[in-house]
Design brief:
homodimer, about 300 residues, alpha/beta, Cytidine Deaminase, domain 2, 6-stranded mixed sheet, about 30% helix
Chain lengths: ~300, ~300
Amino acid sequence: MSRLENIGDYIIPPNHADPRLTRPVEGFDHFGNPVEIRVVEERPLTIFLNSREIVTAMTIGDWPEYLALGFLRNQGMLRDDDEVLGVDYDEEIDTVVVRTARETDYEEKLKKKVRTSGCAVGTVFGDIMEQVEGLTLPPAELRTSWLYRLASTISRTPSLYLEAGAIHGTVLCERDRPLVYMEDVGRHNAVDKVAGWMFAEGVRPEDKILYTTGRLTSEMVIKTALMGIPVLASRSGFTAWGVEIARKVGLTLIGRLRGQRFVCLSGEDRLVRDADPAAVPEEPRKARRKSAREAQDE
Amino acid sequence: MSRLENIGDYIIPPNHADPRLTRPVEGFDHFGNPVEIRVVEERPLTIFLNSREIVTAMTIGDWPEYLALGFLRNQGMLRDDDEVLGVDYDEEIDTVVVRTARETDYEEKLKKKVRTSGCAVGTVFGDIMEQVEGLTLPPAELRTSWLYRLASTISRTPSLYLEAGAIHGTVLCERDRPLVYMEDVGRHNAVDKVAGWMFAEGVRPEDKILYTTGRLTSEMVIKTALMGIPVLASRSGFTAWGVEIARKVGLTLIGRLRGQRFVCLSGEDRLVRDADPAAVPEEPRKARRKSAREAQDE
């Protein structure tokens, strides 16, 4: 293969080699023979904001600080201008405490509206829909050549997904370069870890592209829009309401991105069709194996 | 094909022909040509228990009464012996109100522990782990011939999944017969609808098998165990903690069930290996198409 040069170019690549994130599990196969399978870990992480316990998330366990920051940010509990005094992770008791200069007290908020359940961590539904109400994403360019190159690079990047399956990936990209590749048992954790990294590093969202392995549901679209990222792409499918919200906030939504194929469901105006689809190869054997894995570990 | 006779034998089959559950969405393909794709709906449903608003779930919208009952049941807010005075669904304002003879007030509970996020509706984490602590599932028999027949029947059953993708399925089974096939945008909604049906109909769990298209995470295992169902099977993968909890509560866990293949990860003692795997055909072309769909719409 050519084009492999991009694969080492991440700011944060997947933690596929971290032994703490997977574990060999014993079982018996269809013939009754003992087998050992490497599977992803899943452990609780309780997130505190100042003195308040906010949530216990089930996570593979890497980047707990980014997960905490991103979760609080995406729930609207941490503001853009909040001064974070500390993020303390205690591995022994699986907790992260985020401390802010501003006094916070989010118990009331959580008490009222609770959670949505579209295969997702809950979002404070009423509030979130209100925020999306006034939102319009900035203009941006999206070249189809970037899309194809991103999909190709990401699918060939060594990851926990390729190693052990049963996991979702979210990748923050700029033009044709994937920057940060986060994985977790839930799609939303992976996105939250990206959001936490962006918040911690003060990264601008306007020129970014978010790629996810998961389905494009309303919650995923809303989360991306609230993060200020104008483009969301996935190799998976989408729901009707996800498309509707994307159109409402002016988010460019790309679904079923595989090989030369994709569907642009919203924000077609941002698309610069500079690549000839016919010149893009179908998914290579490796990616097809990946597809089989995905099917297996949906 | 032979063995198609089973396919019409459901008490509740998938609502694949219900026009309210899908919608044509317009987009542009990779060549820039307009395309129209049928996708699943996703709409909010707010569940009330007596005078308290409990949750807003994102759902495809079928069986709202079962979803409400099952959600409340699986959250421990509706007890086995609770007398339900009414379940009122109002389509206009997307709400279901469940009324019980017993007075309930679950605001306090929700305020404290909030939600997990392993691609899931939240469970009241601390409480749930406490419940699992003392739980042991009853003995049961599981023949491998049933597993193979169930997998074959379910994969050939017309469903929203086969029609539009981007959806999860959960099937309640008894021996080799699938009884109730529920689908939804989130795995947990589909399971909750099954639980709601069981609660409404007073169905016994001890001799049942739960089949899901989704991954076997800790939350899915806990939910199945709390429902009292001793066997959980999936064509997808699993997490380490899901396996650990299954072993703890004595739940038989079957993963990666495809064609002649599967892995038994827990409760091997229940398994009666009465089928010769070598005699089971590999997945038929149609199921392989289904796998491709799954990959696409993970």
